[in-house]
Design brief:
This protein is of the alpha/beta class and about 220 residues long. The chain has helices at about 1-20, 20-25, 45-50, 75-85, 100-105, 115-120, 125-135, 140-160, 165-170; strands at about 35-40, 55-60, 90-95, 175-180, 190-195, 200.
């Protein structure tokens, strides 16, 4: 903790004074550009990856970047509702990443047998695991994890469209959904291109996916 506390002192002495005007403006409200639903993994720094400033991103993080279907009355659902209804956000990004511990637990349930809350939470990602088993049952073990992670991103995009505010925004054309996969060791970010049913570099991804092409995991052979 000493290093973290020292970081706070450095922020207060050097960083904050250099950006005082920014923080003064943020004190009166926020106008973020997008909601990010990302994994809690400490190696995934959304501000570094996107090179955004404070106030640019509205962030919801949990194990496995999971979005429970509407009706669960959980923190993720409340965040989605607030992002759209109060902040009027036009973009939602579901961001998964390489070497995801939650996805490892989904592949190997015994690894989370002593963590009942984690195990219950991962039930919202289990359809991705089943899709992987059906479409890629013969894959070498080392290739399962990235494919499962990408299938899970697409599954959570599907779950997003069950939320009334999201469904309404998609139908009106006022909201775009994006599925991103972050490769920790290379810094690469891939985006799901639903129209072409493939993952592409995020700069090639074009507009976000809509209600009718959110990329259901039923097309699991494309991961």
């Amino acid at each position: 903790m000493n290093r973290i506390i020292q970081g706070i002192h450095q922020f207060q002495r050097k960083v904050f004074p250099a950006h005082r005007d920014l923080f003064n403006s943020l004190a009166h409200g926020q106008r973020p550009e997008a909601l990010f639903i990302a994994c809690s993994d400490s190696r995934v720094s959304l501000e570094w990856i996107t090179q955004c400033r404070p106030g640019d991103l509205f962030v919801c993080r949990n194990a496995g970047n999971v979005v429970p279907p509407h009706g669960q009355t959980d923190a993720v659902s409340a965040t989605i509702e607030y992002a759209i209804s109060a902040l009027k956000l036009k973009h939602i990004v579901v961001c998964g990443h390489s070497d995801c511990g939650a996805m490892k637990g989904l592949l190997n349930p015994t690894a989370v047998s002593g963590m009942p809350d984690v195990k219950n939470w991962l039930c919202y990602a289990d359809p991705a695991r089943r899709a992987l088993e059906i479409a890629h049952h013969d894959l070498p073990p080392g290739e399962n994890l990235p494919l499962l992670t990408k299938l899970n991103i697409r599954l959570q995009l599907d779950h997003l469209s069950t939320h009334p505010q999201v469904l309404s925004g998609l139908r009106e054309g006022s909201l775009e959904l994006h599925g991103w996969y972050y490769q920790i060791e290379t810094g690469e970010v891939q985006a799901w291109n639903a129209a072409e049913k493939r993952w592409v570099g995020v700069n090639e991804s074009g507009p976000g996916v809509g209600l009718m092409n959110a990329g259901s995991v039923q097309g699991a052979r494309h991961a």
